[in-house]
Specification:
By secondary structure, the chain is of the alpha+beta class. The chain contains 14 helices and 30 strands. Helices cover about 30% and strands about 20% of the residues. The strands form 8 sheets. It has a 4-stranded antiparallel sheet, with no helix packed on it. A hairpin with a 6-residue loop joins strand 6 and strand 7. Helix 1 runs antiparallel to helix 2 and helix 2 packs antiparallel against helix 3. The chain is elongated and about 175 Å long. InterPro entries: WD40/YVTN_repeat-like_dom_sf (IPR015943), WD40_repeat_dom_sf (IPR036322), WD40_rpt (IPR001680), WD_repeat_GAD-1 (IPR051858).
Length: about 700
């Protein structure tokens, strides 16, 4: 009876509140209508007949909304309480305790509803302090939120952990995932599958992906550059193009620009070649003057180019390191169409050793933001400059970073560390804020090639490098180390082969490795990687088309041809004779006879004949002059008596004097010549002048 009384009283109070709310709403509407009609009448009565804006009473509207929300909450709570009471009564439990609990819950619900409405009204009013409670739409009746997705306070978490609930285990698993223990880092290395690409027979000295992941380029010590297009390759993994851009120079470095439109090639020559997407050379850098001492006055490199890298932000700028002791910054905007050459550099950076002399930079790199330039030299030093207009003083210098030439330097993704590899078999990690000692160092890593690579994983949690194989007993390896401790995490062994070049493409999540046996290994994971080499290994090989041969039809009955048909009235011409058949066969044999190339003719030893010129002298002019002189002076050279050859023209000169004799004919005596010509007498040998050993023996006795 007490429970029914309480229910009746609650229902009466709720109905009374609803009636009051309805009255307020109707009053507000009436007031709004009256205000609107008055405004309309005033507008119609005005001279210009303009309409005014409608006026709303926000206070009355907010009050009506809060009253409706309260009534709905109370009705939902009342309905829920009655349903729970009926269930308890059917189960045989005490309904008084449940009613008391329900009344308490109803009071709390009413308090919550009133608090929300008050906070919503306060949010509209200009107050200084913001309340955390917001006016939210009412939840549907019977809705139970999922507590597992609700963020609990620290006090509630502590209570649950103390109680030993399931929440404790979930938090521990979540903490392990945050610490990196949930997923092993080695599972992030895409090495579950391997594809083998054959470059050549000599070591692969350079390797590069383009930034879009559509192509991979390899260069080796065989002077060749192979371009592999993933969209055109099939299961055979053959290169799309094979080039020899630098003639007989070893390829040292390959690098794509930011948009993949330009490929820069650095080799043993002093000039850098630039290729387009088709593999055609469209530009090259100018060669410097090797006789100028100051490198600032030379327009280009004067020695072999060791490394080339593009600016990560500016697609037209690239950096090169050369054995002439300089780093040079180039721009493709300086390309000249007439000369098809980049005529000058933009900046020159001189590298010097501890004695102030030239140091040969072996490798170079940009920072990820393009604000820092780093290089490693042959004296083992690491030098860095801020990218700007002046490169006089270094911003970071480690003079004795390594005891041998540096093979590779890489800036960390965060831009605060530098990873270096050198021929002293060490791998070191340096901090840009401290150049005294390395942060981490790993030794006993065999390094026999000056292009041995190292680098960071795309997320920076690992570093990788390769080791060399100096003999068949020592295996080359591809090592993956923890970037925080340099502890080995994963390795791939190559028996008797050195690991030289390594490229990890972040977008494709594939790793390309260049080895000393002339092969390129591409590693990928079917779950973690996508596109790239995965498009090629599943594509079947293209069937080679058979060579199309034009075959002449064989005539089985040659006597039916038109040439063997009877002609004229003469019966002899109508007959098919043996002579006519042989004539046809000779003609057919002459047509099918191959045209052999005429062998080179031997040089002429005698006079020129048959349109061929005898080889004498360096040019044709010298030969013609020689032949003309021989023909004119042949008779003169044949005469041994010079006097007789001159007197042969004496009679003609006397009859028609043309030169000196014509001027002196009147006062000169008549010349008288000796009529008889004598041959030159043979000179007798002087016995006194002969050597002693040639004298006869009889003279010694006398």
């Amino acid at each position: 009876s007490s429970m029914s009384d309480e229910q009746d009283s609650a229902r009466g109070s709720a109905m009374q509140k609803e009636e009051e709310a309805d009255q307020k709403t109707t009053q507000a509407k009436d007031g709004h209508v009256d205000g609107g009609s008055a405004a309309a009448a005033a507008g119609e009565g005005s001279a210009n007949g303009r309409k005014r804006a409608r006026v709303f009473d926000l206070g009355s509207m907010l009050a009506a909304t809060t009253a409706t929300a309260k009534s709905r909450v109370e009705q939902a709570e009342e309905k829920k309480r009655l349903e729970e009471a009926e269930k308890k009564a059917a189960a045989g439990e005490d309904p008084q305790e449940d009613a008391a609990k329900g009344a308490g819950q109803g009071g709390r619900a009413i308090a919550v509803a009133s608090r929300t409405t008050d906070s919503a009204y306060n949010s509209l009013a200009p107050t200084d302090d913001d309340d955390d409670d917001d006016f939210l739409p009412m939840l549907p009746p019977g809705f139970k939120p999922d507590e597992s997705v609700i963020v609990k306070d620290d006090d509630e978490k502590a209570k649950l952990k103390a109680a030993g609930g399931e929440e404790d285990e979930d938090d521990e698993e979540f903490d392990d995932y945050n610490n990196g223990d949930g997923i092993p880092t080695t599972a992030l290395i895409p090495t579950s599958c391997e594809a083998k690409i054959l470059h050549g027979n000599k070591p692969v000295s350079s390797l590069a992906f383009d930034h879009q992941g559509a192509r991979i380029v390899s260069g080796g010590q065989d002077y060749a550059v192979n371009i592999y297009d993933f969209q055109k390759m099939d299961h055979g993994l053959r290169p799309d193009r094979q080039l020899t851009p630098c003639e007989s120079h070893v390829i040292h470095s390959l690098s794509f620009n930011a948009n993949g439109e330009c490929l820069a090639i650095g080799a043993g020559s002093a000039q850098i070649r630039l290729l387009d997407r088709k593999g055609s050379q469209w530009a090259e850098t100018v060669r410097g003057d090797q006789y100028l001492v100051d490198l600032n006055f030379t327009k280009g490199h004067t020695a072999a180019v060791n490394c080339i890298v593009w600016n990560p932000l500016v697609k037209t700028e690239f950096l090169s390191a050369s054995d002439d002791g300089s780093l040079r910054i180039w721009s493709t905007d300086d390309f000249k169409v007439i000369t098809k050459c980049i005529n000058t550099h933009q900046r020159v950076i001189k590298t010097k050793n501890a004695n102030g002399k030239r140091a040969q930079p072996q490798t170079c790199a940009y920072s990820p933001d393009g604000k820092l330039i780093v290089c490693g030299c042959d004296d083992g030093s690491i030098q860095a400059w801020k990218h700007g207009k002046l490169f006089v003083n270094t911003s970071y210098l480690v003079r004795k970073a390594h005891s041998a030439p540096v093979t590779c330097v890489v800036v960390a993704p965060d831009g605060k560390k530098i990873l270096s590899r050198a021929l002293d078999d060490t791998l070191k990690l340096w901090s840009l804020s401290d150049n005294k000692a390395p942060l981490l160092m790993k030794g006993d890593l065999e390094c026999g090639f000056k292009g041995t690579d190292c680098g960071f994983s795309p997320r920076g949690e690992m570093v990788y490098t390769g080791t060399s194989s100096p003999s068949a007993e020592v295996d080359g390896k591809l090592l993956f180390l923890n970037s925080e401790t340099f502890e080995p995490m994963y390795q791939i062994v190559y028996p008797g082969v050195s690991c030289i070049r390594i490229a990890w493409h972040a977008r494709l999540n594939q790793i390309a490795v260049g080895l000393s046996d002339g092969t390129v290994r591409v590693y990928y994971d079917q779950q973690l990687s996508h596109a790239g080499i995965m498009m090629c290994v599943t594509k079947p090989k293209k069937r080679q088309r058979q060579n199309e041969v034009l075959r002449e039809e064989l005539i089985l009955s040659p006597l039916t041809l038109h040439m063997f048909q009877p002609r004229g009235d003469n019966p002899d011409e109508q007959e098919v004779t043996e002579w006519r058949i042989r004539k046809y066969l000779r003609m057919r044999d002459k047509q099918q006879r191959p045209n052999f190339r005429k062998p080179a003719e031997m040089p002429l030893d005698d006079k020129s004949c048959g349109g061929r010129v005898k080889t004498s002298g360096g040019t044709l002019h010298s030969y013609v002059a020689q032949q003309l002189g021989k023909e004119k002076n042949q008779a003169f050279l044949a005469d041994t008596d010079v006097r007789a050859s001159i007197l042969r023209h004496a009679e003609a000169a006397e009859k028609d004097p043309q030169f000196i004799n014509k001027a002196y004919m009147k006062n000169q005596p008549k010349p008288i010549f000796q009529e008889k010509s004598t041959a030159p007498e043979e000179e007798e040998s002087d016995e006194e002048l002969e050597p002693v050993y040639k004298m006869p023996r009889g003279q010694f006795s006398s």
